[in-house]
Design goal:
about 180 residues, about 0% strand, mainly alpha, 2 domains, 2 strands, disordered C terminus, two-stranded antiparallel sheet
Length: about 180
């Protein structure tokens, strides 16, 4: 939970958007059009207005994805998207239901949370180091070819993430990286 909140908070600082940006104004105009269909004193209008007040905010999944896309390395096709969705879904499960959904046993839920948290820990630290100016090639080397890289690569692989250079050279994919 704390790691997801940290990514969310960092996103709010990294990607500040003007309240008068074209995107936000467009979302607000759309909400106003919908609200205008209901009478001024209607209880549903008041309820819907409070629900739409933050409709312009990116989803938690989008925030996680946008933050980690700034890292100086890439992942396989749709790997990062699946990871961001899983992180957002599990955070929502904990926040809104206090644990796993009805169709998931607690043991497997706990195992998934542990794997996600370990990976989030490595990626969040990489993100912070990148934000404070650690060189991209140094960060890539630490993540892929250092004393701690085996633990990092194992943690990432356990949830389906495989680090690649941003501009992968033509040729075969390294043997430790599955093709997607």
């Amino acid at each position: 939970m704390n790691l997801v909140w940290s990514v969310e908070a960092l996103h709010r600082k990294m990607f500040v958007e003007s309240k008068t940006s074209e995107r936000i104004l467009s979302v607000r105009k759309r909400a106003e059009r919908v609200l205008s269909l209901l009478p001024e004193d209607d209880d549903d209008r008041k309820w819907l207005s409070s629900r739409l007040a933050y409709a312009h905010e990116p989803s938690l999944e989008a925030r996680i994805l946008e933050c980690f896309r700034t890292l100086p390395f890439a992942f396989g096709r749709s790997e990062l998207e699946k990871f961001a969705k899983a992180c957002a879904d599990r955070r929502n499960d904990i926040s809104h239901t206090g644990g796993p959904r009805e169709n998931q046993e607690y043991g497997s839920f706990h195992d998934e949370i542990s794997r996600l948290a370990e990976t989030l820990d490595y990626l969040f630290h990489a993100l912070l180091l990148h934000q404070i100016g650690v060189e991209s090639k140094v960060l890539f080397e630490v993540m892929t070819n250092s004393l701690v890289s085996e633990r990092i690569k194992t943690a990432l692989a356990n949830i389906g993430l495989y680090i690649r250079p941003v501009a992968q050279p033509p040729g075969p994919i390294p043997s430790n990286v599955p093709e997607h």
